[in-house]
Design brief:
The protein is built from twelve helices and two strands. The chain is mostly helical. Strands 1-2 form a two-stranded antiparallel sheet. A hairpin with a 6-residue loop joins β1 and β2. It is globular. The termini are far apart.
């Protein structure tokens, strides 16, 4: 009986930590130039620089071009220098991978994650899909602090892609990442709770956190749960306000102008 009480209390403490932590996005989700949080999903509103592994928002990339530091050019022909460190860009797949390897040799966890993802998909820089190599790199990156690598590992374990399907390990990865502010991991915890576990109360707790960090998918889930009577009016209102505030904080005139330009002529910059 005492052991059962201890187990129950340990589980309660774990849940307290899980829901109390990770309400702020990690440093990597902020553009190092304008210092603003990058809209979600980050990869759709930014570009990673292979030379320094900095993630620069679209607004700052386009602004760098427009300030005249670089002439607008076709991305396919020649990439502009890094807007952050001004390192000349790569010229081909070989030089691109050499840049990444240099960062890996320096112990950069994000570089390991970057290369791991490209081995996972095998779609860029001439790399062929290599699941064992991808998992090795992502595991190493996660062990050295990459929250995005933890999130991706969670996905692989959850779906049994390249590894033995292990939902417990997937949840462990997502929980560890979510408690440090990885928004997509927090969302996945909510989706798993709502879907596989049919526990809408737990799902709403997770979705409230990620929605208030600016995640539209989580906001949409809460809206659906509200429409079906699982989420209360107060919960829906809280999520809607938090989501709206987060989105507003990520807006700027520079980003709006950049988006308009990219919508009109993306080949000039991408």
């Amino acid at each position: 009986q005492h052991k059962e009480a201890c187990k129950k209390r340990a589980a309660e403490l774990k849940d307290e930590r899980l829901y109390a932590r990770g309400h702020e996005r990690p440093e990597r989700d902020f553009c190092p130039i304008c210092t603003m949080a990058i809209p979600l999903p980050v990869e759709k509103h930014s570009r990673i620089q292979l030379c320094c592994m900095k993630v620069i928002c679209d607004g700052c990339i386009v602004a760098d071009e427009l300030r005249g530091r670089n002439r607008a050019r076709s991305f396919a022909a020649e990439c502009p220098p890094c807007p952050f460190c001004r390192t000349p860009s790569y010229k081909d797949n070989e030089s691109a991978l050499a840049m990444v390897q240099k960062r890996i040799d320096a112990g950069d966890a994000d570089a390991k994650k970057f290369l791991g993802l490209h081995y996972l998909h095998g779609e860029l820089y001439g790399l062929k899909k290599d699941l064992p190599r991808a998992i090795q790199l992502l595991t190493d990156a996660a062990e050295h602090g990459s929250l995005d690598a933890l999130f991706e590992l969670g996905n692989l374990y959850y779906n049994g892609e390249g590894v033995v399907k292990d939902e417990r390990e997937a949840i462990r990865c997502w929980e560890k990442a979510a408690m440090q502010g990885q928004v997509e991991a927090r969302h996945n915890l909510g989706a798993d709770a709502a879907g596989r576990k049919h526990n809408t109360k737990v799902a709403i707790k997770h979705f409230l956190i990620s929605a208030k960090m600016g995640d539209k998918n989580s906001m949409d889930y809460i809206k659906t749960l509200f429409e079906y009577g699982y989420a209360t009016n107060d919960q829906y209102s809280e999520a809607l306000k938090g989501y709206g505030d987060a989105v507003e904080e990520m807006k700027s005139q520079q980003r709006e102008e950049a988006q308009a330009i990219l919508n009109f002529a993306p080949s000039k910059f991408w």
